[in-house]
């Protein structure tokens, strides 16, 4: 089967939308700090159904429900380390189950989500980058989960919503020399990481090893995607973009505010800027992915 990096090199590939967004729309309670990862334990069939719905909408890549999953979070629920590992592997198995329900000959892939350190804190710090952690500390924190998902059978690894260069450095150290295929996606605003560094420097660091086949952004405002995609394209890597709806998440009150700005009509400017892996993040659902897929086909 064609690998995802090969497919991206041949033309735009459609990612899915926000998994938690769809799970909530389907009536699931995600108020736990584990968000959608809680359903890996309570109702994995719901995660399979959500992945299937995105595939039906035209997505070609399912990003797994492991973004919020962590050993610390599972331990708070009383899970052992072995049980936590099984839950991480289940996140990939759910996406594979959804993919295997299609036999139309169209290629589809699974990306194992590896969320940032801030996600486990569940306080919105992945949108600030104010961790107070060194690259070595972040490397050691990421390593156990990375090692499990690296052998999960996912087609690629997706390091998502990375807010600062110190975490990019940790991720590059994890990947360097492994021979795995991964993308690194930062969250940025106004041409800078959430920690305030020039986004070009962060992209350059992320693109510095062969294991990373794509760099870009996610969970950022859609109107800024074209400029950020152009900066990512300068690295010579494929470019991944999947913005949020444009609404703003408050990690303290756990609520959204503002008006949506995500529209499929902008996709032409994203591809013109170099984007080739394109989807949506928080508050972007199957309807928007369907419109996006249609726009890319046309």
Provide structural commentary.
- With 298 residues, the chain is α/β, with parallel strands linked by helices.
- The protein has one domain: Alpha-Beta Barrel (TIM Barrel), CATH 3.20.20.330.
- Helix content is 42%, strand content 16%.
- It has 13 helices and twelve strands.
- The chain has an eight-stranded parallel beta sheet. The protein has a two-stranded antiparallel sheet with strand order 6-7.
- The chain is globular, with a radius of gyration of 17 Å.
- The protein starts with a helix and ends with a helix.
- The mean pLDDT is 92.
* SS field, number of helical segments: 13
Helix and strand string, N-terminal first?
HEHHHEHHEHHEHEEEHEHEEEHEH
The CATH topology is TIM Barrel
Helical content, roughly? 40-55%
The best one-word shape is globular
Structural class: alpha/beta
Q: Mean pLDDT across all residues, rounded?
A: 92
Q: What's the number of domains? A: 1
CATH architecture descriptor name? Alpha-Beta Barrel
What is the rounded distance between the termini?
Answer: 25 Å
> Could you tell me the radius of gyration in angstroms?
17 Å
User: Any idea of the CATH class?
Assistant: Alpha Beta
What kind of sheet is the major sheet?
8 strands, parallel
Which strand order do you get reading across the main beta sheet? 1-12-9-8-5-4-3-2
Report the portion of residues in β strands. Answer: 15-25%
Organism: Nakamurella panacisegetis
Cofactor: Zn(2+)
Keywords: Metal-binding, Methyltransferase, Transferase, Zinc
GO molecular function: S-adenosylmethionine-homocysteine S-methyltransferase activity; zinc ion binding
């Amino acid at each position: 089967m064609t690998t995802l990096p090969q497919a991206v090199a041949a033309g735009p590939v459609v990612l899915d939308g926000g998994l938690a967004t769809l799970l909530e729309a389907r009536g699931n309670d995600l108020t736990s700090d584990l968000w959608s990862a809680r359903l890996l334990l309570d109702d994995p069939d719901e995660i399979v159904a959500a992945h299937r719905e995105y595939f039906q909408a035209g997505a070609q890549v399912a990003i797994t429900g492991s973004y919020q999953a962590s050993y610390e979070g599972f331990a708070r629920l009383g899970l052992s380390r072995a049980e936590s590992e099984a839950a991480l592997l289940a996140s990939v198995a759910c996406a594979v189950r959804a993919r295997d329900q299609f036999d139309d000959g169209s290629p589809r892939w699974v990306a194992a989500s590896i969320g940032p350190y801030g996600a486990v804190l569940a306080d919105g710090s992945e949108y600030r980058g104010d961790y107070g952690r060194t690259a070595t500390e972040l490397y050691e924190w990421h390593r156990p989960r990375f090692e499990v998902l690296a052998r999960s059978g996912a087609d690629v690894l997706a390091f998502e919503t990375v807010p600062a260069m110190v975490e990019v450095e940790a991720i590059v150290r994890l990947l360097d020399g492994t021979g795995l295929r991964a993308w690194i996606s930062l969250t940025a605003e106004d041409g800078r990481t959430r920690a305030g560094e020039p986004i070009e420097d962060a992209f350059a660091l992320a693109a510095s090893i062969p294991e990373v086949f794509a760099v870009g952004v996610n969970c950022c405002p859609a109107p800024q995607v074209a400029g950020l995609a152009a900066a990512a394209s300068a690295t010579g890597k494929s470019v991944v973009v999947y913005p949020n709806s444009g609404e703003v998440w408050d990690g303290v009150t756990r609520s959204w505010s503002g008006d949506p700005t995500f529209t499929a009509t902008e996709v032409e400017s994203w591809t013109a800027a170099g984007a080739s892996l394109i989807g949506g993040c928080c508050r972007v659902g199957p309807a928007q992915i369907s419109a996006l897929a249609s726009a890319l086909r046309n």
